[in-house]
Design goal:
Blueprint: E1 2-4, E2 10-13, E3 28-32, E4 40-45, E5 52-54, E6 57-59, E7 62-68, E8 78-80, H1 83-89, E9 96-104, E10 110-117
Parallel strand pairs: 1-8, 8-9
Antiparallel strand pairs: 2-3, 4-7, 5-6, 9-10
């Protein structure tokens, strides 16, 4: 079983689905709805007194902390998460998947993917 722990539906398309179409239906194989709670990484400011300005934009130094909203591993269950969450937990978790081979619409926005991947 694959559960989607991102905040967005994951649309999986066939390999022959071309990029550049605004219609979501051609080549659509399945849609994995979000489970409701997204897995995320906590962000901890390293030193809030050291915020610097770069070209007039405030830049804060942060450290990415532990993942939250992620269930413990279960046999025969994989979880779709964001790439940052998956990369933060490699090699501790082998049950995390990410969208792979993105499908884009006419304006270049990602609308789905052709596969899922397991980061290692």
């Amino acid at each position: 079983m694959i559960l989607n722990l991102t905040p967005h539906p994951i649309r999986l398309y066939s390999d022959d689905r071309p990029d550049g179409l605004d219609d979501l239906e051609p080549g659509l194989r399945t849609v994995l709805a979000p489970e409701g709670t997204a897995a995320r990484l906590s962000m901890v400011p390293v030193d809030s007194l050291r915020t610097e300005l770069r070209d007039g934009i405030p830049v804060e130094t942060i450290e990415y902390g532990h993942a939250y909203g992620l269930p413990d591993p279960h046999d025969d269950i994989s979880f779709i998460v964001s790439l940052p969450v998956a990369l933060a937990l490699v090699p501790h978790r082998s049950d995390l998947l990410v969208p792979y081979r993105e499908v884009r619409n006419a304006s270049g926005t990602v609308i789905g993917c052709r596969q899922l991947a397991q980061p290692v």
